[in-house]
Structure formats: C-alpha cells, structure tokens
Amino acid sequence: MTAISIADVGDRPLIPAPGVVWRACRFRAAPATGLVHDGPQGAVSLTLPPDLLRAVDRRRSEFLAGRLCAALALRALGAPEAVGRDGRAPVWPEGVRGSISHAGDLALAVAARGAAGLGVDCEARFSPDLAAEVGPGVLTAADRAARPPDWDEAWLCTLAFSAKEALYKALSPRLDDVPDFAEARIERIDAAALTLVFRGARTRVAYRLDAAHCVTLAHLP
Q1: Do residues 198 and 205 touch, judged by C-beta distance below 8 A?
Q2: Where are the domains of the chain?
Q3: 164 marked as binding residue
Q4: Please, which domain of life does this record's source organism belong to (predicted)?
Q5: pLDDT tens digits along 101-117
C-alpha cells in the first residue's frame, strides 16, 4: 500500500465552539492507496475507496488526510470512527454531526454530538485574478456593502465563499437541492463572525483569517 506523508497532527480548535472537536494535519500529495498513522490517540489505518484509485494524486491524498482527521475527531467523541459516503458527501455515525475540509497541504475535520448542523470550510486566500473570476457568482450587492473598509475584494470573496460553503454543509441534511452561492447574503461582518441570511433565516458563521487561509465554522446548536 502506497501511503501519504502526514505531519503536524493537532487537536487545537481553530475556532473554539462548545462541544465541537477539531482535528487537523498537514499532508504531502502522493499516488496513495491508503494511510497508516500512529499517534498519541492510537493507530488509524485507512484504505482508499475503489472509485478513487484512478483519481489524481491530490484528490487521493486530500481524501485520506481528511478522513484521518475525521476518524481522530470521532475517536475523541467516543463515536464509531467510520465515515460513510453518499456520492462525495460524508455520512457520519448516528448522533454525530461532522464536516471535513482541505486547502493546499492542510486538512481538517470537526465533529460534535447534539448539533443540528455543523459545517467547516478552509480556503487558501484568493488571488485578485481568482476573485475576479468567481466573484460574480459568489458576491451579492449586500456582501459588497458589508465589506470592512480595510478589506480588498479578494479577501471579501474568500470569506464569502468559505462562509457560504460552511453554512451549506451545515444545512445539507435538511436541503433537497444544491443552493447557489448568491442565495445567501452577508448582512454583517464582525471581528470574528459574520451573519448570513439564507432563505429567510439568519445564521452566525465564525471565521478565522491569517495571511494564507480563511477557516469558517457554521455550528447550529
């Protein structure tokens, strides 16, 4: 079995939220067919699903790294560690909500019991060219009106994309369709969270920005 290289496995909450367990790691893309990791929480062994064996190296590696983080988060909750699949969507153990994301060489997962919904997203900071390309499909007039005065459009587009993705992940168990990014609009951006309005409901989505990444968390208690 060709395995990927895993490093910097951590349990520090990137965005603290009551009852939410975080796990994150760094990985190096490889033509992997599986993963074996032995850390302080014990060993985890994963095998790539047959339908992904022909995927590109990055897709294989990010899948395995994300599932490693998910298994470790579930283990910390005392829940079954297997995450099923429905198409590309993860299927979490009964009684647990969870979410997985990855960007660049970073993979992360969150899990919680008793949540109505949970969604996490991680994005590398958009370049001005990428923001110009995807912005028309992501940003609404309300989003632009809510932009802090010291932010450029690329940062706003990164946050809007990530926050809407996190919200849609959190709501996915109760949605019968795949929403358009322009359906949700930003009502307000505060220092550590923003308010999204989607189909008549307001939801606070927490965020964390650094020089390279934007991480967002939609936690529906």
Answers
A1: no
A2: 5-113, 121-220
A3: no
A4: Bacteria
A5: 999 999 999 999 999 99
| Amino acid 2: pLDDT | 66
CATH number of 121-220: 3.90.470.20
- Spatial CB neighbours of 153, under 8 Å, sequence gap ≥ 6: 128, 131, 132, 135, 139, 144, 147
165 is in an annotated binding site: yes
Tell me how many degrees the CA angle 151-202-122 measures, rounded to the nearest 5. 50
Residue 88: predicted pLDDT: 80
Q: Is 59 part of any known ligand binding site?
A: yes
Per the DSSP assignment, residues forming a β-bridge with 185 are: 197
Is residue 169 a known part of a binding site? yes
81 is in an annotated binding site: no
Task: Quickly tell me which residue has 């985890």 as its tokens.
Answer: 44
pLDDT tens digits for 130-154? Answer: 999 999 999 999 999 999 999 999 9
Whether the model clears a pTM of 0.70, i.e. scores above it, the answer is: yes
Q: 165: burial class by Cβ within 10 Å (0-12, 13-18, 19+)?
A: buried
128-138 helix and 153-171 helix, angle to the nearest 10 degrees = 50
